[in-house]
Write a structure and sequence with these properties.
Blueprint lengths: L1 H29 L18 E8 L6 H10 L5 E4 L1 H6 L1 H9 L3 E2 L14 H19 L6 E2 L8 H9 L3 E2 L4 E2 L8 H11 L4 E5 L3 H16 L3 E2 L2 H6 L5
Parallel strand pairs: 1-2, 1-7, 1-8, 2-3, 4-5, 6-7
Length: 237
Amino acid sequence: MLVVKRKYFAALALSAALWALGAANIVGMYGGSTAACAPIHKGNTQSPCASLIFNVDWGEEYIPQLLDILKEKNAKATFFPTGTWVERNAELAKKIVQEGHEVGNHGASHLHVETMPKDKLQSLILKGEERIQLATGVKPSPLFAPPYGEWNDKTVLYALEIGYQTVLWTVDTVDWRHPPPETIWKRALAGAGPGCLILLHPTENTVAALPTLIDGLREKGLMLVTVSENIARKPAQ
């Protein structure tokens, strides 16, 4: 009985230590205890960088045009596809990777996660990872963009437990509502600054807005980098 009790309390201690380590990692990432369960909204604000984020669950007809513009402008972006999108569009997913862009994880499918139990949320992320890797041959970066931008303390920690940081955005262009191209790039540039993450989707008007947006970011002195680079980048000396 004594051995069983010791094992029980040892397991409790280990569980508490792992939870504390995960929380500490997040606190360190955001620089304060009040943000211990917060997603990433921006990268390094001391470095002149910006990142374009494309959440993808539809709009495959616009992906080739977006890739052409990014290539022409010598700009890299981070794409967050769902697993179902990747299964339907494996060749496009491969092209995204082949052209040097980062691929994160938008979940296996576009579901509401805010009230999702731990096992289902972690399965959603891991199945998305599996489908992306199967289609592209590359494991996605350990970045999770939750569908609908939904999150709470638990979803962030559940993702962290399986190695994923939760990523949202600094500026939401709301391009999925199909505003005019000028509205998209003006909205993005108005909120752009060092470390910013700009949320976009594959739409016709986003394609039209993208060249001006990229030029505008560079005119503001911002380099375009992937989300992982933005997060990891050291402050300017």
